[in-house]
Structures are given as structure tokens and as C-alpha cells.
Amino acid sequence: MVATRGHRFDRYAGGNRIRLTGRLLHPLTLTEPRTGRYARGVKGRGIALAAVAGLLMVGCSSGRGNPFFIRLSGPMPAISGTTLAGRPFGSADYRGKVVVVNFWNYDCPPCRQEQPLLQSSWNALATKGVSMVGVMFVGGFPPWPDDRTAARAYLERFGVTYPAIVDEGSAIARRFGIPGIPTTVIVDRTGQMRFRILGRVRPGQLDQLIDELG
Fold first, then answer.
1. Of 97, 118, 127, 157, which has the fewest CB atoms closer than 10 Å, so is most exposed?
2. How far apart are CA 58 and CA 10, in angstroms?
3. Quick one: three-class SS letters along 59-98?
């Protein structure tokens, strides 16, 4: 177990470090994206302590790619706010569409590694009834930074054209129950959460999972 950013709640999934959050009180069941077979479960000690402490402790996975995802069920929590470009964002922007929700922070190395792929995927998916939104996670302990100027510089550096909002008070991350960043959630057209990608997105992964939605 490796301490990252001052925490020791790391557990491993597919060779990647994923900082578990206090909201994840059950084992993760990972599936292989091509076969759908259950790969293994991951259970972190100390998660209950994190929950009692009331801390959403989110950390970067390692730089190596994580090919695993988990299947989800249940309605997508609402996302709304003002984008870092200064425009309003809400349910009208994604209702009736497949939604890709990516949790990130500009200070997270694997988030930076996956960003060109996310933008490339968005370029291809934008005309296919897909909505994408980046949710910048801030807070935690030690806190992920919340420098809006640095965040806008990050988006400009990578040429990000899909909406990106700041998760004030980590409220959105808590509702989604994310286990770490980067994490990407895929929602079907009926508003049901279907997949959660753990760690950075791999080439072809979004297309494959979205195609599975039919």
C-alpha cells in the first residue's frame, strides 16, 4: 500500500492505485470490458473510518492504464452549475442523451494523461446524441486545489470544448459516490447510470461501452 497525498487508504485495481472514498462501503466488483466477466473484488480497510470522519478522500490512480470498469444501476444524480467558461449547465443540456461524466482535477497527473483522449472522443461523439461534462473535484484532505485560473488554463492547454464545472463542496462527487479521480461514469438515455471507469480512460473504451448501451 502506497501513501499518496498524505493518505493510506489505497487499494489496487488492475495495477492502479485508487483512493477509496468514505461512501464506498461495499466491495468493488470489477469486470473486464471485452468479456464482461467478473475480474476481482476490492475491499479497503479503514473505509468506515473515512465515512465516520465525514471526509471524501479522493486520489489519483497511478499513471498506468486501468482497463477495468464496474456496472452500475440507479438514476443519475442531477448536475448543474456554471461552467468554467461562464455558461449555465443543467439537465436541459443532457436530458434524453447518453451522458459521460468525468471527474478530474488539473493537479491530477492521470487526469492530464487521459485528457487528450477525452477530447478526441468528444469530437467524435458530440454529433451522436452524447453529452459530456467534466466535473472538477475540489476539497478532500489534503484538499485538491480550486484555482479557477489554473483550471481554465488546463482546459485551454488541452483544447477542451465540452462543458466543465467545479464541484463546489464535493457535493456532486458524493452523490455519485466516486471512488477516486480520474473516474468516468456513463449514463444511458433514460438517465440510468450504467458504467463507471476506474482510473484513466483507455483508447476505444468509451466507444465500446456506449455501443453496449444500444
1. 127
2. 10
3. CECCCCCCCCEEECCCECCCCCEEECCCCEECHHHCCCCE
Amino acid symbol at 77:
P
At 171, which CATH number?
Answer: 3.40.30.10
Q: Does residue 189 lie in a domain region?
A: yes
Eight-state DSSP code of residue 212: H
What is the DSSP secondary structure assignment for residue 207, as one 8-state letter? H
Within 8 A by CB and 6+ apart from 175, the residues are 77
- pLDDT, tens only, 159-208: 999 999 999 889 999 999 988 899 999 999 999 999 999 999 999 999 99
Containing structural domain, residue 118: 10-212
- pLDDT, tens digit, for every residue of 35-90? 333 232 223 333 333 332 333 333 454 444 445 799 999 999 999 999 999 999 99
Tell me which residue of 31, 15, 103 sits closest to 71, measured CA to CA: 31
Indicate whether 3 belongs to any domain. no
